[in-house]
Structures are given as structure tokens and as C-alpha cells.
Task: inverse folding
């Protein structure tokens, strides 16, 4: 039901059940907020969104107070503005004064609030809590000294991801956000997805920085530094360079990365095709053997960690194939860089990804061979843009260049794996091709690309029925897993921890909104529509790569390159 309320002397429309803040924002009235975040339950913790409501003595938090017909609201009275300014001043009272050295300098909501409220001096000299940074996670760094206790990370981890790795601990002015028993994040149930970073308004949470490591490698004379980047990252970096979201910059990125000193630059779509083709092979084998139990995707390391921690009984059902990131790293070190005089241990391979969990994956013990890691450093989208700026490269002025082989060959079909449903769609396309020798009609697959939290599709391929499902986000997994794991009609289930898939990953540009995420997915779909092949298994390069690895480096071999620990537990 819609009714009128009065705001700042004018009438606006409000909807029954919505919060005052929603009604104001919908009517173009901006209210500052810190603890509020779209999609999370309101908490009213920071009180930045206070407004005056006629007849109510105390100021009202607009994010948590439902709107009512009788309300006459004032949003920017002197009392309200003074209250908001005081809140920011109190937050700054025990906040470290190191903005210039902070990873969020220029992108910090607290900094913005201080500026918007004309705070030019420290009015309240507060006592700083002596809190230590938690560097224990391989993906994330927590700096509690910069935490303003807005609780957005807690609610994201709990309400969006369904993980609950962190919560408020201690009491009163000793309150902090921490893990169970105050242990490091590495010992908590954190799945390293990085969605808490996307929610954090300050520098209290950020990715584990690996940019310096890459810089050092680029400057070392005896290092041969290579990089592979995700196509999802290539359609996202433009946003951090002032472009509209969803522009594919892969050609310019190839040129920029060579300028920065990388000796070989690969687009990871090639490795995605290899991953999809190997998974599709497994699905076909299981179908032919009559195994009526779904195989789960294993390319999202946050989902793999979730399975290991919460659903160990599912580990035998995880596809025993390395993720595209790790496949590319292994290929680079064993085969692709076949330069005279360059030993595998001299190659420093960097992966640039939209994901923080990929840092965790790269450091897993089983992702090394004879002490040499497949991937030596993982940069998020944000870190890669920092690197390009650091080297003074004006990427938008560069002429596009092709990536190095095998990515240069083109024709790869797995661009859509960065969006929810894309992995299942790519596997389905390839299974269909492997069973029938034909490409599946794309109009049959649209259902898998929707934004729904759970999707499934069953198509006929000759005498066979291929059933696939998509679990869009770790919360959706919590809700569906019991009914899914023993489904006899599903051959393959894609699980991505981040809702929306990697286009919405925890390493992506900060302050991304739903439009940005949709535009990135649309850009990937565009790349897909231009691909000359629609089945990874049609890609002729996979076989030569396989043979190349086996001949050049028989000690590593294709199997060693592809299989993960899950292989040991595979039911095949
Ligand atoms: Fe990383 Fe993608 Fe998984 Fe998110 S969905 S954790 S971005 S692999």
C-alpha cells in the first residue's frame, strides 16, 4: 500500500512496511549511512542515518524504523547534522591517523563522511585500543584498529554467505569483531571468499597483499615472470579506470602487462576450456558407468573449503580436476615456457583473479610439484589495477595486443564460467558435444543464466538425459545441499560461493553495485556469443597441450598436472 508522508515540508510517497531510509532514498533524498547495507538486516548500530520525526523526542534511526502515515520527517535539521557530525568525530577519536598509508585511502567511507561533514580537527582525543593485525589467513588481512564496529562484515558472513566465521566479542568499549576464541582467521570457518572486504567501509579488511611480491619478482634479473588473467577480471578493471562497467579490456591489458615487464601474458580462458573439457570427460564416463550421483564443480576454492569444513562426505563427489588458475600455472611451468636456459624454478607465475579465495588455493600444498608451486602469487582485480598505475601505464591509450599462445589462438568457449550458471552451461555444452558430436542449441540453456539462487536443467542428448544444476552462492548451498547430493537425475552441479559467480567476487572493484555485476556478466555473454566454438572439447589445442606436457615433462605429465587431492577419493 502506498501513502503520503511529509519530508522537509514536502509530500513524498512511501510504501507500507519499508524503512524510512528506503522511502527517502527512493525519493532522491540522500542520507549518510555506515552500518546500513542493501540486502542486510538493519542494525541501527552507527546511528549516522538519524532523522527528526515530529512528536518523537529522540532522533530516529531511519534504516531500522518503518515508515508510518502520520510521520513528518526532517532529514537535515541543525540537530540532525550536529548529531551525525559528532558520531563521525567519535569514530575518528580512536581511529588510527594513517589514512595516507591505508589501502582504502581515497575509497574509505569513514574518510568520505569526515569530509562531507567538514571535520577539520580531532575534537575528541580518544584512547586507542592496542589491537593487532591478523595476518594468519592466506587471502585476507584483518586490521581491528581500523574497525568501526558497523557489523557489515558479520552480517554479510552470516546472512549472505551462511558461514558465520566472525562476530562481536567482548563488551562495552572493549568490543571488537573477532573469531571464535579469538583465534586467527585461518583457524576459523572462514572460506576466504572476501565478501566481508566488499562490505567493509574502511581498511579494516582487505586482501592479503601480494603486489610487493610480484614487483620484487619483476625486478629480479634471474626471474622469468609470467601472468595469466581471468576474462572476468578483464571485463571489470575498466570500472577502476573511470569506464562504464562491462567493457572488455583484454587486448589493452595484454599490452599493459607486457609493458609492466611480464614475459608472457595468458588469458585464462584457455585453461577454463581445458578444465571444462576434463570435467565433461568425467561426467560422460560416470554416465556410461551408470553412476547415478552428481559430480560437483571444484573450480571455486571457497566452495571446496566449505565442502572440506562442513560437508566432508561430499569430497568424493568433487570433480578431481584442477581449477583453471592452477591448470594454467602448471602448464606454464611444465610446458608453455619452453625458453632455452629457463628452469621451472626460475619461472614466477602470477594469476590475476576477481577472487580472494584463489590466493588460498594457490598456497595449498597439493598445488605444488616437487616443491615448485603452480602459481607463485595471486593478484585481485584491485591489486592488478594498482600494479598498472604503479608502473605509470596509461592502459586506455594502448593499442590492443593478442595474448600469448595458447590463449592467442582464440576460439575458446568458456568465457561464461565467470558468471553464475556458466560452469554448468559449459560442462553441459561439452557433454552434449561428446555424446552427440553436435553443438547444443544455445536457446535451450538460457535458464541457467538467471540470477536465481538455484537453477536446474535436464536436456536430451540422443538416448541420454543430461541433468545439471546450479547453486548460486554459499547460502543457497546451505539451503539445498541435503536434497541435492543424492539426486539420481543430475550428472553435474555447479557451486559458486559468491552469489552471481566470480563477476561478484571478493577481489573485484569496491563499491560495485548490482548493475556493475550484471554488466560484467553481460560482457562475458557477449564474448561467448562471438566465440567460434561452443564446446570446450571441440578446441583442438587441448590434445597437443596434453601431448606436449607428457613428452616434454614426463615426470610431471598431464595427470599430475590436472589431478588434485580429490583424485585419491574419486569414485571413478
Ligand atoms: Fe572466488 Fe568465484 Fe568462488 Fe567467489 S565464486 S570465491 S570469486 S571462485
Result:
Amino acid at each position: 500500500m502506498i501513502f503520503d508522508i511529509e519530508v522537509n515540508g514536502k509530500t513524498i510517497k512511501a510504501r507500507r512496511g519499508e524503512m524510512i531510509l528506503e522511502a527517502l532514498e527512493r525519493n532522491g533524498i540522500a542520507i549518510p549511512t555506515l552500518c546500513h547495507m542493501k540486502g542486510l538486516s538493519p542494525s541501527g548500530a552507527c546511528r549516522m542515518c538519524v532523522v527528526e520525526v515530529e512528536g518523537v523526542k529522540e532522533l530516529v534511526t531511519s534504516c531500522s524504523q518503518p515508515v508510518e502515515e502520520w510521520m513528518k520527517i526532517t532529514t537535515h535539521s541543525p540537530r540532525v547534522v550536529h548529531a551525525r557530525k559528532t558520531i563521525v568525530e567519535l569514530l575518528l577519536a580512536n581511529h588510527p591517523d594513517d589514512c595516507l598509508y591505508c589501502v582504502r585511502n581515497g575509497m574509505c567511507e569513514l574518510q568520505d563522511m569526515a569530509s562531507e561533514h567538514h571535520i577539520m580537527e580531532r575534537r575528541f582525543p580518544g584512547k586507542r585500543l592496542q589491537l593487532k593485525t591478523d595476518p594468519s589467513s592466506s587471502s585476507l588481512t584483518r586490521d581491528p584498529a581500523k574497525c568501526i564496529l558497523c557489523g557489515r562484515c558479520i552480517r554479510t558472513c552470516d546472512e549472505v554467505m551462511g558461514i558465520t566465521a566472525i562476530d562481536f566479542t567482548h563488551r562495552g568499549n572493549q568490543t571488537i569483531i573477532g573469531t571464535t576464541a579469538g583465534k586467527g582467521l585461518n583457524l576459523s570457518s572462514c572460506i576466504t571468499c572476501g565478501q566481508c572486504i566488499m562490505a567493509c567501509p574502511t581498511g579494516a579488511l582487505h586482501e592479503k597483499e601480494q603486489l610487493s611480491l610480484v614487483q620484487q619478482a619483476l625486478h629480479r634479473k634471474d626471474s622469468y615472470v609470467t601472468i595469466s588473467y581471468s576474462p572476468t577480471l578483464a571485463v571489470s578493471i575498466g570500472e577502476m579506470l573511470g569506464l562504464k562497467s562491462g567493457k572488455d579490456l583484454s587486448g589493452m591489458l595484454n599490452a599493459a602487462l607486457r609493458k609492466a615487464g611480464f614475459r608472457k601474458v595468458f588469458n585464462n580462458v584457455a585453461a577454463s576450456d581445458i578444465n571444462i573439457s576434463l570435467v565433461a570427460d568425467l561426467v560422460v564416463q560416470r554416465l556410461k558407468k551408470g553412476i547415478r550421483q552428481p559430480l560437483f564443480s571444484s573450480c571455486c576454492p571457497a566452495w571446496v573449503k566449505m565442502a572440506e569444513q562442513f560437508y566432508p562426505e561430499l569430497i568424493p563427489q568433487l570433480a578431481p580436476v584442477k581449477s583453471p588458475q592452477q591448470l594454467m600455472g602448471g602448464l606454464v611451468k611444465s610446458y608453455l615456457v619452453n625458453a632455452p636456459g629457463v628452469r621451472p624454478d626460475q619461472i614466477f607465475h602470477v594469476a590475476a583473479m576477481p577472487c580472494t579465495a584463489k590466493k588460498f588455493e594457490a598456497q595449498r600444498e597439493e598445488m605444488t610439484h616437487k616443491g615448485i608451486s603452480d602459481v607463485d602469487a595471486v593478484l585481485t582485480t584491485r591489486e592488478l589495477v594498482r600494479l598498472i598505475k604503479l608502473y605509470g601505464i596509461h592502459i586506455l591509450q594502448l593499442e590492443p595486443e593478442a595474448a600469448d599462445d595458447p590463449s592467442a589462438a582464440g576460439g575458446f568457449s568458456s568465457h561464461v564460467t565467470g558468471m553464475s550458471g556458466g560452469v554448468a552451461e559449459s560442462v553441459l555444452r561439452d557433454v552434449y558435444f561428446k555424446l552427440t558430436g553436435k553443438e547444443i542449441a544455445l536457446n535451450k540453456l538460457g535458464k541457467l543464466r538467471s540470477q536465481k539462487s538455484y537453477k536446474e536443467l535436464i536436456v536430451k542428448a540422443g538416448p541420454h538425459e543430461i541433468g545439471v544444476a546450479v547453486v548460486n552462492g554459499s547460502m543457497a548451498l546451505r539451503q539445498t545441499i541435503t536434497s541435492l547430493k543424492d539426486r539420481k537425475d543430475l550428472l553435474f552441479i555447479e557451486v559458486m560461493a559468491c552469489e552471481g559467480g566470480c563477476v561478484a567476487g571478493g577481489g573485484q572493484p569496491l563499491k560495485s553495485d548490482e548493475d556493475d555485476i550484471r554488466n560484467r556478466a553481460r560482457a562475458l555473454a557477449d564474448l561467448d556469443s562471438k566465440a567460434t566454438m561452443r564446446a570446450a572439447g571441440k578446441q583442438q589445442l587441448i590434445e597437443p597441450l596434453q601431448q606436449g606436457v607428457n613428452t616434454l615433462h614426463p615426470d610431471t605429465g598431464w595427470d599430475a598436472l590436472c589431478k588434485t587431492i580429490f583424485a585419491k577419493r574419486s569414485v571413478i
In short: Residues 193, 300, 302, 354-355, 357, 496-498, 501-502, 505 surround iron/sulfur cluster (CB under 6 Å).
